[in-house]
């Protein structure tokens, strides 16, 4: 019976599935253990056996046991994937066009297998399913569910998709019966190439809403656009205007509220009887209608004669095709609700249904207010409630109006101003889908993030699990033993406390003897605490084979963030101390203190190899994550949208958590429009000098010797690319640095000193370099030096400076320049 089992196809076969089937074959046929390997060899096929011989070489397969052969084949054909890479692929998986819910669910389950989610599998499946579903209708329905789990999410999505598919069939039949011409063509072109086509269910749900609400303003019927109506060029016998029939004329008799179908706008009658019908008038190429919110406050004493001409008129029309409404989630009474931005409305409104469902305990107060709509109609709200509203750390008590038969929650100008809300930007992609709007509730996101990655943010010292650092010394290097340096009595207590903390954390460990010993260097941190460093330049660094892994230049990092608008910055806590040293390396790092000898078990500041080792580890962790820059322990996430920043930040935090690294939360920035990074301030406009870093330079007194002057010029040159023709301005100061030059601080030096500080104070904002844009290079030469400006043009055609460069001319070269003039 074994011969009936198929051969393994090396090109298309799945080895794990093949082995599982083979195990069941053994069970079904009672194959003994000693016959499993011969059976496998006999049925695997010629190409499979040839591969088996290669992976088992130099030992023949039949001389191994079944488990060993299967393991070797598995390692070759299906090596265990990186958990991080698998999770990244899983997070990127969105539902594709034409893919049904069941197909998407199956793909998510397949991709989750190598992710090792363990107890959080269903939770991760649910989150990715909700985030990745294409249908906005389904997603909003899932958002409305409380305590939604994976099973109920997929079940509910399948029900909605099936209902939409069934509705498309009914809709297609009805439109065919009603009009075999233009309407049936519209149904097929709008919904799909056939009723119930699975690839168009997302459009079906949206189309169902549109067809239920939209009513032709020419004839009053539903199911088609005004531009497609046969009566759109008719003259109305009542008002004598072209574009509609008498029965829908605004001057005619009132239309019965019962004829309204589907979701409609808010009733415009004073008592809000029934539901108004949505008026639609869009171009032939547009899909859907157009929303036109407009609410105007009026006093009750105003004349209401115009309002009595029509009993019902919508407050809004349907969205115009791809141009979706802008919605912002806001916390109201400790509940998150989505509100649609409406700058045409002074007030913020909710429907009566939302009020009774979410805010039944809020007292509904009467209000002496009338709402006037875009078309001139008027309506009175049911009342107003006072609610506690929170948005981006702004908390206020505001009025929220309740409208009878309302649908959309409106966010008006009052709330926009009181909560300092910036209306988010959005764009329409080629496939018609809207980009994600940068209007997320960052407070809730951060709270969830701190909870999910609590191990990353706790106060304990991290321990990198991705490998150990190794220090190597030159062959034949002689150990150097230095005595402990005298410690001021005023610092002894604080140094003892720091040593005790390092002992508890396992950073250092006492030793009785060592060939190497390095004295301590005490460094004050900006927060007032001490950092104990070792002066390895007099001991180990002289014999060390330095790890030369490249640390990126600042220019390289900034060139990657062009076009970014949102920034998150992470700072690893005691970064080097999170890397463990191997046993041999710890013998080299011994420090000599007033309390005796201690060896470092972790990577330590002051070692010449520490930057290269640490940058290498960080590169292995983060190099494949887009929009991430890192300079040693400073990680920067820069994206063009807030949603991308949140997504990338979660990926980075998961990488850090999986590798045992910890972050100092107090030094981090999240989802900011401006951050300080590596001595600069960066935002969407470009790079600026850091005022805190520049302040000590601006307050410096004139130098009194060459050493102080070199220090001043060095600090100025750090920001040299911000100052045009810097070398020319520094020329009088450079004169004092020449060999055999006398130190004479004269008026020209003082003027240059003051001028450079003024230029630094008013330094330009530099644009980010964009490799896709052409470069404009402007050069100039003068009697004292050379200057250059590197620039690029932005979208508006303006020339933006990337960097300034300059160089002072030596006296000999300057003489040649003057002679040539």
Shape designation: globular
Number of DSSP E strands: 26
Q: Considering the protein shown, what is the CATH homologous superfamily of the largest domain?
A: Reverse transcriptase/Diguanylate cyclase domain
- Return the domain count: 5
Oligomer: single chain
Query: For the record, what CATH class of the largest domain applies?
Result: Alpha Beta
What portion of residues is helical? Answer: 25-40%
The CATH topology of the largest domain is what?
Alpha-Beta Plaits
Distance, first to last CA: 100 Å
Strand content: 15-25%
Average pLDDT taken over every residue: 76
CATH architecture of the largest domain: 2-Layer Sandwich
Total of helices: 25
Quick one: biggest sheet?
A: 6 strands, mixed
Structural class: alpha+beta
Radius of gyration: 36 Å
* Biggest sheet strand line-up: 6-10-9-4-5-11
Low-confidence stretches: 171-214, 253-322, 427-439
GO molecular function: aspartic-type endopeptidase activity; DNA binding; endonuclease activity; nucleotidyltransferase activity; zinc ion binding
Protein name: Reverse transcriptase
Organism: Loxostege sticticalis (Beet webworm moth)
InterPro entries: DNA/RNA_pol_sf, Peptidase_aspartic_dom_sf, Retrovirus_Pol_polyprotein, Rev_trsase/Diguanyl_cyclase, RT_dom, RT_RNaseH_2, Znf_CCHC, Znf_CCHC_sf
